[in-house]
Amino acid sequence: MTDEELIALARAAALKAYAPYSGFHVGCAVVSTRGEVVSGANLENACYRLGICAEQSALAAAQHAFGLDQIARIVVAGGTPGAHGLAGQQPVTPCGGCRQALLEAAQLSGHDIEILSASGDGRAMRRDTIRGLLPHGFGPEDLKDAD
Ligand code: THU
């Protein structure tokens, strides 16, 4: 799938978010090394701290569909639902917790993961890698000396 198609998928996924508390809808598409695609959206809870980010939701789907160690790239888009689909001008990059979850997948596979972060309206974007967004992060590679 092209960047544009994946951004459209992430924006569509965001519209299926359950985000009654923040009103901020995030969607995430995860692409495997073989080109398979799964998606997810944020899922909030009345006990606010139990909410799940779109990236975590999509990573769980990715593990079931093809495995956490087969992730090549992800696309994230976030904003507010409007008359013409998801709106918003700021690209949404993964939060710190999601960066940690993505680093787990990157270290499992042994290769970096590309992250395309898009605005709600899909017009603004930035491209990063997880190792760039979480330099010197702690992951499975750092547990090699554990019992
Ligand atoms: N959110 C995500 O889903 N992913 C991120 O990387 C940033 C934040 C969600 C969590 C919460 O439901 C809402 O956006 C506002 O923080």
From TrEMBL:
PANTHER family: CYTIDINE DEAMINASE. It holds the Pfam family dCMP_cyt_deam_1. Keywords: Hydrolase. The lineage of its organism: Bacteria, Pseudomonadati, Pseudomonadota, Alphaproteobacteria, Sphingomonadales. One of its GO terms (cellular component) is cytosol. Residues 1-141 form the CMP/dCMP-type deaminase domain. SUPFAM superfamilies: Cytidine deaminase-like. This is Cytidine deaminase. It is an enzyme of class 3 (hydrolase). GO terms for biological process: nucleobase-containing small molecule metabolic process; pyrimidine-containing compound metabolic process. One of its GO terms (molecular function) is zinc ion binding. Belongs to the cytidine and deoxycytidylate deaminase family. Its EC number is 3.5.4.5.
